[in-house]
TrEMBL record:
Domain (WCX): residue spans on this chain: 248-327
Secretion signal, residue range per the UniProt entry: none
Alphabetized Pfam families for the sequence: WCX, WYL
The WYL domain, residue ranges: 142-216
Protein name (record): WYL domain-containing protein
Organism: Slackia equolifaciens
Alphabetical list of PANTHER family matching this protein: PROTEIN PAFC, PTHR34580
Length: 331
């Protein structure tokens, strides 16, 4: 490249080195900047670099001057802090619907928002327990297709599969495609779900988007009716075992007082707590929660080995006992 053309890149070169090599803790001196420019074949002298830094400030870059010996220049404030970038990386790493390849690509893009020093910190990833990665890389395409159908108010056609014991795809619905009206897309429990309306069943059903295959936005207009119009997102459907059971149930749990964190971790910090009756063990407390009756809820209680017990309603206690007896009978 001709020397004159390289000079035109000086402003961009300064911006790039400040973005890559500086942050709130580390800056570049004037000598550092000039040496890096010369290494790229760009001639520079102090006054022109000062002018370029001022131009970048006018452009909107938050370039700070650190009064050190010697003076240093740095981009002190970025769109995201290192802590925020770490949260993004770990959210991506722990997303079960992403393949390893998709995960690595997203992490690389997130790291572009950091300085070189911060990128090294991001490489030291926090361990997130239970990182299970999908082997299906179509989830983004499927989500895009459903959003397109929602936007264009059209139905979607897709095959739906479950995994067999040998990990092969078992196409449902007798191998025929579903043709349904998409209602909403929800992210819950590490997966994307699509709520669909079926004309033939006159009702709603949820489908895991990473289990959809050959999804197509059809030319058929989406169904519009009062049921769909009134259908609203319900948090309870996607938390507290909501995807696995029937109607919501108000439950009183008997919890070991020194283990209440288990309940807070599962149901959130807003759970109401109360003391047990006067004749009860002071080492235990009551927790008031809303769940959906399901084997998953019973399994969660059983797995805590008496730390958490179901106190009320009585009929749910009896259902739980029947669930436990059923497990014993299978031994």
């Amino acid at each position: 490249m001709a020397a004159n053309n390289k000079q035109k890149l000086k402003l961009l070169a300064i911006m790039r080195m400040l973005q890559d090599e500086t942050d709130s803790e580390r800056g570049l001196t004037m000598r550092d900047i000039i040496e890096r420019l010369e290494a790229q074949g760009i001639e520079a002298e102090r006054k022109s670099v000062y002018r370029d830094i001022e131009t970048l400030r006018e452009f909107g870059l938050d370039i700070a001057t650190y009064q050190r010996s010697p003076v240093q220049y740095a981009i002190a404030r970025r769109d995201f802090s290192i802590s925020e970038l770490m949260l993004m990386v770990d959210a991506v790493e722990s997303s079960r619907f992403l393949t390893r390849r998709q995960c690595d690509a997203l992490v690389r893009n997130i790291k572009l928002l950091a300085s070189d020093r911060e990128r090294a910190l991001l490489d030291k990833r926090i361990h997130v327990a239970g990182r299970v990665k999908s082997k299906n890389d179509s989830v983004f395409r499927n989500v895009d297709a459903i959003h397109e159908a929602l936007r264009e108010r059209r139905k979607v056609s897709f095959l739906y599969f479950k995994l067999g014991p040998d990990r092969t795809r078992q196409i449902q619905h007798d191998g025929k495609p579903y043709v349904l009206t998409p209602v909403k897309v929800v992210y819950a429990g590490g997966f994307y779900y699509a709520t669909m309306y079926s004309d033939s069943h006159e009702g709603f059903a949820d489908y895991r988007i990473d289990r959809m295959h050959r999804i197509v936005v059809t030319d058929e207009p989406a169904t519009r009716n009062e049921l769909i119009t009134r259908h609203a997102f319900d948090d309870a459907e996607y938390q507290n075992f909501g995807r696995f059971g029937g109607d919501p149930v108000n439950v009183v749990l008997d919890v070991a007082a020194d283990k209440v964190d288990i309940v807070f971790d599962r149901f959130g910090d807003a759970v109401q707590m109360g003391a047990m009756g006067k004749d009860e063990d002071e080492a235990r407390v009551q927790a008031f929660v809303t769940v959906r009756r399901s084997e998953q809820f019973f399994g969660w209680v059983a797995g805590l080995g008496g730390t958490v017990k179901i106190a009320e309603p009585c009929w749910l206690v009896e259902d739980y006992r029947a669930y436990l007896q059923g497990l014993i009978d299978q031994l």
